[in-house]
Amino acid sequence: MLARLLIALFLLGATPALAQDGGPYLFDLMKQPHYLMAWKGMLVGETVPPWVKSFTKTLNGTTAPSTTVSVGGEPYLLGWVCKPHDCGGNELYVLFAPGARQAWGLLISGGKRSWLGRPDPAIQAAILSGVK
Question: How far is it, in rounded angstroms, from Cα 129 to Cα 113?
């Protein structure tokens, strides 16, 4: 009886964390025109490595399920991609506003971090909450 109670409490405690994970992969989001448009808008005027440009065209990159993060009480989607076969230090975190009306990113490349899309401090904090 005690074991069942402990299992039930564990599952109830784990449910919120599980609910935030397991969203669509970035390559699936990018197949939707409004997400692709927000992505491309984030990259306008930015200098990015060739693998990021390639991902935009081919959707070939290592990704993980997106997560939902809250910004100002609204749910935003946080996605992640890294350079194929060379993830270490070659990552891009991208945060999409509800409805993919805008996107911002954090590019980690060559030991440097660069913000894409001019995110404000609240957006930066939301992106940093997902950085591994």
Answer: 15
The second-level CATH assignment, the architecture, of 22-128 is 3-Layer(aba) Sandwich (3.40)
DSSP string, 113-126: EEEES---HHHHHH
53 to each of 4, 18, 59, 99, how far by Cα in Å? 51, 32, 10, 23
Each residue of 10-66: pLDDT tens digit? Answer: 333 332 333 345 899 999 999 999 999 999 999 999 999 999 999 999 999 999 999
Dihedral (CA of 26, 32, 38, 41) sign: positive
pTM of the model: 0.82
Give the pairing of strands 67-71 and 112-116: unpaired
For 63-99, write each residue's pLDDT tens digit: 999 999 999 999 999 999 999 999 989 999 999 999 9
Please report, for the chain, the start and end positions of each structural domain, with discontinuous segments joined by +: 22-128
